Prior knowledge:
Layout: E1 2-8, H1 19-22, E2 29-42, E3 47-68, E4 77-98, E5 104-120, E6 138-150, E7 154-165, E8 168-169, E9 179-180, E10 183-194, E11 199-206, E12 214-220, E13 225-230, E14 235-242
Antiparallel strand pairs: 1-2, 2-3, 3-4, 4-5, 5-6, 6-7, 7-10, 8-9, 10-11, 11-14, 12-13
Amino acid sequence: MGVSEGFKSGGFNGLGATAVEATTLFDPEKAWNYEIGAKTSIADDRVQLNVSAFRLDFTDLQLRDRKLTIPGDESSAIVNIINAAKARIKGVEAEFIVAPVEGLRLSGFLATLDAEIVGVVPGSTTIIGTVLPRSPKTTIGLSGNYQFPVGNAGDLSLRADYRHVTKQFYDINEPPASLEPGYGLLDLRLGFDSANGPWGLSGWCKNVTDKEYRSHVQQISAGRAGVTQVGDPRQCGVTVNVRM
């Protein structure tokens, strides 16, 4: 169990629709975090289960605010940081680790999230009940690693990691262009560690299925379009490690 407080400092915006906006501070963002959890292990530590629940209460939440300095002219849009709302984030995280046989390790996690606006600052256009950006309701991860000796030469290891997130918005106002559907990413790795020298060799592939997804969206044109940062495509390579 734990209780903690944190904050993000305030500051000035580099741009402003008016001189008053450009010289007006946005306030610090503050948060209280409450967490409770448990860790268990059974079968001579071959099975571990960790569970935790948490809650974050934000005040003066800092959000990106897009506005037109010239009404009706999309090219005049600027983005500033404003104190928009109070927010609450609640969630549960569960993790398991299993070692059923020698050299094999299986693990996974499940995280659920409920993140929404629960109050607004006067003058803010943010709506109570709106889901916070980058807050998928569910995230799932699975991993498997198997390591075994190859004669007296060294150890060979095989590893697979999979992560899936459900849909999420990248903008607080939830325009269609900022909606990212759920997606999953698979990474694979084959490695060898020499028993006769301080070196290792591994071949790996990230995003094996070459899944297309967006890692960031900056809204333009009143939410009908956005400047997109695309997630990394399939990447494969070889890594040589030397232990000093």
